[in-house]
Amino acid sequence: SNPCLPLPVLQVAHCQMVKDLSACLLGQSLRVDCRYENKTSNPLTYEFSITKDNRKHVIHSTISVSENIYRGRANVTMHKNLVCLYLQSFTTSDEGVYMCELKATNDYTGNQIKNITVIKDKLEKCAGFSLLIQNTSWLLLLLLSLPLLQAVDFVSL
C-alpha cells in the first residue's frame, strides 16, 4: 500500500494501476486475469497482446486492432477491478509473454503494463466453482469423512 504521491510538475497522482497479472487453464482455454486498482471513474480501455519470436501480436483490444488469428478465439470480460482474457483452444503455439495494458480515458499517467510468461505445461488449473462441479469425487470424500470425524470426537470424550 504505497501512497500515491502527486507529481509537483503536472499535479497528477501517478500510481501503478495494474496490480497483478496471472494465468491459468480453464478446460481447453487460457484465462489471463489482469487485476487493477481503480483510480478513476473514467472509462477503461485495455489491450491484451502476446510477444513471441520477438514480435508483438494483439489478441484482444479496445486500443488497437486485434489480429485475425486470435479474433475468433478471444473474448474479454470486465468485472470490478478485473479484466479477464479468455483464449479458446489454447495450445503450445500460443505460448509466449502475455501483456496486459490498461489506460483510463483522460488519464495522463500513461498506459499501465504488466507481463507474464505463459508456458502450457507450467499452467495451473483455474480455481473456482466450475472446477468443484467437475471434481465431485473430492466433495463426496469430504462428506463421507464427516461422520468419521464426529465418531473420532466422540471417542476422545
Automatic annotation (TrEMBL):
<dbReference type="InterPro" id="IPR033292">
    <property type="entry name" value="THY1"/>
</dbReference>
<dbReference type="GO" id="GO:0007155">
    <property type="term" value="P:cell adhesion"/>
</dbReference>
<dbReference type="GO" id="GO:0005178">
    <property type="term" value="F:integrin binding"/>
</dbReference>
<dbReference type="GO" id="GO:0051894">
    <property type="term" value="P:positive regulation of focal adhesion assembly"/>
</dbReference>
<keyword id="KW-0732">Signal</keyword>
<dbReference type="GO" id="GO:0043209">
    <property type="term" value="C:myelin sheath"/>
</dbReference>
<keyword id="KW-0449">Lipoprotein</keyword>
<dbReference type="GO" id="GO:0045121">
    <property type="term" value="C:membrane raft"/>
</dbReference>
<dbReference type="GO" id="GO:0005925">
    <property type="term" value="C:focal adhesion"/>
</dbReference>
<dbReference type="GO" id="GO:0007229">
    <property type="term" value="P:integrin-mediated signaling pathway"/>
</dbReference>
<dbReference type="GO" id="GO:0009897">
    <property type="term" value="C:external side of plasma membrane"/>
</dbReference>
<keyword id="KW-0873">Pyrrolidone carboxylic acid</keyword>
<dbReference type="GO" id="GO:0030425">
    <property type="term" value="C:dendrite"/>
</dbReference>
<keyword id="KW-1003">Cell membrane</keyword>
<comment type="function">
    <text>May play a role in cell-cell or cell-ligand interactions during synaptogenesis and other events in the brain.</text>
</comment>
<keyword id="KW-1015">Disulfide bond</keyword>
<feature type="domain" description="Ig-like">
    <location>
        <begin position="8"/>
        <end position="117"/>
    </location>
</feature>
<dbReference type="InterPro" id="IPR013783">
    <property type="entry name" value="Ig-like_fold"/>
</dbReference>
<keyword id="KW-0325">Glycoprotein</keyword>
<dbReference type="InterPro" id="IPR036179">
    <property type="entry name" value="Ig-like_dom_sf"/>
</dbReference>
<dbReference type="InterPro" id="IPR013106">
    <property type="entry name" value="Ig_V-set"/>
</dbReference>
<dbReference type="GO" id="GO:0030334">
    <property type="term" value="P:regulation of cell migration"/>
</dbReference>
<keyword id="KW-0472">Membrane</keyword>
<dbReference type="GO" id="GO:0005096">
    <property type="term" value="F:GTPase activator activity"/>
</dbReference>
<dbReference type="InterPro" id="IPR007110">
    <property type="entry name" value="Ig-like_dom"/>
</dbReference>
<keyword id="KW-0393">Immunoglobulin domain</keyword>
<keyword id="KW-0336">GPI-anchor</keyword>
<protein>
    <recommendedName>
        <fullName>Thy-1 membrane glycoprotein</fullName>
    </recommendedName>
</protein>
<dbReference type="Pfam" id="PF07686">
    <property type="entry name" value="V-set"/>
</dbReference>
